[in-house]
Amino acid sequence: MRGLVSRLLAADGLQAARLRDAGVTGAEDVGLDDLHRLPMVTKQDLWDHYPDGLRAAPADAIVCVHGSSGTGGRPTLIPYTAHDVDVWAQVMARALGGAGATRRSTVHNAYGYGLFTGGLGIHHGGMRLGATVVPSSGGMTDRQLRLIQDLRPDVLCCTPSYAIHLGEAMHAAGVDPADLGLRVGVFGAEPWTAQMRDQIERSLGLRALDIYGLSEVIGPGVACESLDSGGMLNVAEDHFYVEAVDPAGLPVPDGTPGELVFSTLTKTGMPLLRYRTGDIATLAGPADGSARTLRRMSKLLGRRDDMLVVRGVNVFPTEIEAVLLADPRVSPHYLVVEDRRVSARAELRVAVEPFSDTVDTAALARDLDHALRERLGIGCVVRVLGQGGVPRTETGKARRLARWSAGEPPIPGLE
Ligand code: DLL
Question: Using CA atoms, how far apart are residues 186 and 172, in angstroms rounded to an integer?
């Protein structure tokens, strides 16, 4: 941490100015115990300093950039040095190794290649591990199925929503996943629930693990579940020091949901001290009896800015998803719509698809309405659409939340 503070002070940018304002003039002024007194950085800071971001290394030391399209379509660009790419390969190799991948593995990588960190992050890690990476990228599902049948990968990497889509496509093509030899899937980049995990495991016949990361910090590999991590994700905290904080920025105890804040201890291209992610999770120590020493984080519980306040009640879209997917009649394609056409009377609308044509849609709508009211404490307008009524995402992240403030509904059938 002191090394990071020294690098930031030497780079003399925004973070150095904030450190000096907080009375820090040298690395010896900081310790882990009073970390919460140090300034934070946010996505807004990256937007304000677009496109060079908070680069701390000279331009000729940068070997690549990545980023995300970001909330509200505003891009963020992250510069990486060769050292950063090396750190990324290491943490990703560790994540894949923890999932059971070895040098003998074939990793089918259906995360999108490009500015998005999913494709190349897994790619670097798989190669570092010595596995064979199949860089199939997103989309073109028929070709993906062909490659999976021909190359027989044991590891599948993609977004959880695409894993569901692949499973459906396999079943439609009459392919039995049991014949394929897939052992484990490393799924992330978007929220998914325990129910979705069950569905993916059943449909693809593999063990489904969660991987978390964000481009600002490095990309995938910031934290990843391992076969033995007890349902939580091991944080690569030798590179990314993690805190969970309350809205005032003060630490919350282990087990209490808080916003994740990361400090990149080893990065050099765009090192960040106390980056506020907006992601909400709980933290815990290593699993009992485990040889691993890293702290763990829960699956993400939601995002600070995804929290909907409907008639005074705070609701995270993942809570709605948990209710929907607990019902075996509901397919994992759904859309939550925050209807603010009448601003004083916001309403939640939920569009779902039944698993099959034989489902009694009126009974399903009634039961979901009841279950949502029980769980959230407010009623929602449930619309059961025909199969295919909720658009699929073949590339990139699934869209599960939409806002409707005027005009046409975000998808037909919601009125
Ligand atoms: O999504 C990096 C990544 C790629 C992670 C592939 C895992 C697998 P960004 O595009 O910058 O980076 O988006 C980061 O996505 O702040 C979370 O809100 C969300 N997110 C990432 N992983 C998960 C996850 C990549 N496992 C943002 N569960 C983060 C829920 C996730 N949300």
Answer: 23
